[in-house]
Design brief:
Blueprint: H1 9-20, H2 25-37, E1 44-48, H3 54-61, E2 65-70, H4 73-83, E3 88-91, E4 105-111, H5 121-130, E5 131-142, H6 144-147, E6 158-164, E7 172-178, H7 181-190, E8 193-199, H8 206-210, H9 212-220, E9 224-231
Parallel strand pairs: 1-2, 1-4, 2-3, 4-5
Antiparallel strand pairs: 5-9, 6-7, 8-9
Helix pairs in contact: 1-4
Bound molecules: S-adenosylmethionine.
Length: about 230
């Protein structure tokens, strides 16, 4: 399993530029994830699926001891260039065992990454292993409303292929998995996480100025969902 489109250095750089100030990431997902995560000062935090390091930069600036991880060498290079010695940046695949000792982190923070994996149990079990007792997992993923019209049946985990524009002159094909809420919650439970909260964010006020039509759409039909869970015993 790789990051797919994010492996290409040129596309990774375009993704970083396009999402630095856009509505979906900068004025919707990122403020919502940070609000759910809350205070991170002095915490050991794993940013799992760091892309170009937007959240990792916020984590380090907020006082977290941050390890940023991504499967894409191009994204790892962008995050390293951005953060220098402020964070450790690791190339690793969330579908495999993670290169961290048990009980290394207080918080696993994973933004818009898990929907690229078909099977969530391996990464969720690894997140539970690398968290300390009582540690938190906060992650965002595609809301099933975002993909419901693209799959034959809501209840099955299903590969979706979409064409995305906005990352340069050529449209790009993107593959990820639709997943029903029941499967998300069952997998969290199997990996021994206890759900604390399920958040369906609305766009931040600045989204209105940047793209009123998209902001209105996101207010009416969520694209992303944020889950907040605690490692059980
Ligand atoms: C949409 S981006 C994440 C958004 C990012 N957090 C931000 O705020 O800009 C998804 C990231 O997940 C990474 N990714 C996809 N599959 C992965 C896997 N199996 N293991 C680790 N990273 C993965 C991709 O390389 C990409 O950088």
């Amino acid at each position: 399993m790789t990051g797919g489109l994010y492996d290409d250095p040129e596309l990774a750089a375009r993704y970083a530029d396009a999402t630095a100030n856009n509505v979906c990431n900068a004025a919707y997902e990122r403020p919502a994830m940070r609000a759910v995560a809350g205070g991170v000062a002095e915490l050991d935090v794993l940013d799992a699926g760091c892309a170009a390091g937007e959240h990792a930069a916020w984590l380090t600036a907020s006082g977290a001891r941050t390890v940023a991880l991504d499967v894409s060498p191009a994204m790892v290079a962008l995050t390293r260039a951005r953060l220098g010695s402020a964070a450790r940046v690791v190339e690793a695949d969330l579908a495999q065992s993670l290169p961290f000792a048990a009980g290394s982190f207080d918080l696993v923070f994973s933004s818009l990454t898990l929907h690229y994996l078909e099977d969530w149990l391996p990464p969720l079990r690894e997140f539970a292993r690398v968290l300390r007792p009582g540690g938190r997992l906060v992650f965002s993923t595609h809301h099933p409303f975002m993909t419901i019209d693209e799959v034959p049946a809501y209840h099955r985990v299903t590969l979706v292929e979409q064409t995305w524009t906005g990352f340069g002159p050529e449209p790009v094909r993107v593959r990820f998995y639709h997943r029903p809420f029941a499967r998300m919650l069952a997998d969290l439970d199997t990996a021994r996480f206890r759900l604390r909260g399920l958040h369906e964010p609305v766009p931040a006020p600045e989204a209105e100025a940047r793209d009123p039509a998209l902001a209105a759409r996101l207010r009416e039909r969520p694209w992303f969902v944020i889950l907040d869970a605690v490692r059980g015993d």
